[in-house]
Structure prediction request, 799 residues.
Amino acid sequence: MADGLKELKIELSKNGIFTTTLEELYNWGRKNSVWPLTFGLACCAIEMIATTMARYDLARFGAEVFRPSPRQADLIIVSGTVTKKMAPQVVRLYNQMPEPKYVIAMGACAISGGPFRDGYNVLKGIDRYIPVDVHIPGCPPRPEALIHAFMTLQKKIDEQALTGPDRPRHLQAGQPSEYPVPAFGEHGLEPADNRDVFAAAEGNPLKVLQ
Amino acid sequence: MSNDLLEVDPIAGQGEIMEVSMGPHHPSTHGVFRMDVRLEGEKVVRLKPVFGYLHRNHEKIAEHGAYLAAIPYTDRLDYLCSMTNNWGYCLAVEKLAGITVPERAEYIRVIVAELTRFQNHAGLVGFLLQDMGASGTPLMYAFREREKVLDLFESLSGARMMCNYMRFGGLRVDATAAWLDEVRRLLPALPRFLDEFENLLRANEILMARTQGTGRLSRELAVSAGVTGPMLRASGVNYDVRKVDKYGIYDRFDFRVPLGDHGDVYDRYMMRILEMRETVKILEQALRGIPEGPIMDPKVRLRGLRPKAGEAYGRIESPKGELGFFLISDGTTNPYRYRVRPPSMINLTILEDMCLGQNIADVVVTLGSVDIVLGEVDR
Amino acid sequence: MSTLPPVEDIKAQIEAGVPGAVVTVVQNGSPSAQHSLLLGREHARDAALFLRDHAELRLDFCSLVTGVDWLDTETSEKVKVKKVVEGPDGTQQETEVEETRKTKIPGYLEAVYHLFSMEKKHGPVVIRVRTANRADYAHVPSLTPVWRSCEFQEREAFDLYGIVFDGHPDLRRILMWDGFADFPMRKDYVPPDDDALATVPHGKSPEVQA
Prediction:
């Protein structure tokens, strides 16, 4: 916000008038009410459950209820190893979530396959098929790390502009919100990854190879 | 070969047949587990479990690495109970290579294993009640105790869940006197928690109505299907690996094995509560009798262990049932065959038998009482 | 544990109780001394029934079913053969020559069963059944009609090793999806190369990428 506007805002608030921009209000409402999907795959899911319990209490940050249906959720926390057998289901669930939607890849397995990377049934990172907003390293990450990731996501939402070329995906007509679901092949998944999503990340070494 | 559930048997004039796929994403299936259920109205006429959604080929990874390298992967089998997984594997390697464990290490192993059993059973009761609709409150009480136990594990081994603590021939690091005092300080809180828990749940009408008579399992079927753990004992079979094999130093402790009469979900729930009380007794005795001494057999080579060619099967009583490891050695540093006996998967063999003829709502309660963890079912 | 007779006695009892059964003792080199019994395929199920219903053994609990892959091996031996050799002066002479003869020992797949008794509280009794080879005839009789606990575990051995259990009520893949074509736990399985982010091809030494 420009300096002149900021001074005006402070002057008005001294007189008991509260002002804000539409963008701030919109993002403030969105970031403080992110409802995750009940989606736990493996060991990281237990730390996610521990984060929602009384000691660490994720509900303070706005994740008041975990919704079992993807149609009612804003955030999918992919916690645990994504196997090739489960990957089509994860993409399908992501497709069913309405915009705006976010993905947190929790744990080493969701980021890159983790300790099980050598597996014939392990997908080497969920960012092969769906775009990921926040990655949390760890095996498993502590509940505090998940809270930090949640706060990082809130900061990311806060900084999203409503107008202009870098407005978020759900405000741009023509941007995809559903991604193709991989199919079971004879030796693995077909396709092995989704190049639109996988190579798109800035600084991705895959781009160098191409 | 495709799933042949879609062929419909002709049942004349008996209501609607409906195929429901519960899972793999489901609020009550304890992980990525799927059940293909065929319903006639609300009654279950067929139920096929489908899993493999968390198959991370733990066995192949363990065969590619040395014996020591498999220990962190055993933590991730039954990810709620990492200490007992470590113990099962170390016991199998100790049998394979003929390694003995010093006495103090045996005592500490018993202490951490029984603490693990306590927090696992508390969590199970919490999850079972959550499946029945008590959204979150018993689970909060159970996780409150679990956090106390995890704090102890963190100060002992460095990690809350994936402790990677035991080694063949003993333990990675010794427990200090201060840590043992912390456990002694926690110990009186455990029976108080159990009393509080039981008082809140004992006469609860919904618990009684939904669990008594549900998911019955007969003795003969339980034995034939290889069911082990509290689920077996709820059907009245007296088989606890701690009493049968007397591994470690369990023959020094005085504890009882609770048995059930009816084999239904209520009996399985009560098994866990009673076993938690016996666990507290074992912990008291272990903390009284723990000696000083070394915690590791000095002759063991952890890195580069080459057991003689042969095989061994070592098993323990984990909170879920009989956890066993079958190892075949060909004389090199890597195991030739590494196999895990997953109690959760084998306990699922008779899930269909227990659920036939019941309502679909009872399927969720019955599954909750089996106590599965998908990391172990799928490995 | 102390009520279990030694392995040779059990072998004798099976041979007496199941006519035609072929039983061999397989020695175990490790300090665990858990020797096992190799059963011939034709009478394996009858021998299993005999063990389960035997008055003293009462092996009613089949704890574990394991699939094992033993690859084809080759033995070579040096053999002295008489051969006709042309000498330096052009005459035909008969001399003894050392030749290396290689014999191929075909590999097989094996199912190992660990049996215990819940009634008598003793065990384990380890029995093994082997297939004829790894290629076209990988059939063994299923022991699921004897012990129900073999049901899922034999399906797993079929899924990961390709051992076909004749007489199994529902033999299909259990951990991998139905369309998967390989047997991943076999020793000669090569996983597909889908490691797109690796700068070094799977299993090869590092090369400089331009």
Remarks:
- The longest strand of chain A covers residues 75-79.
- The mean pLDDT of chain A is 86.
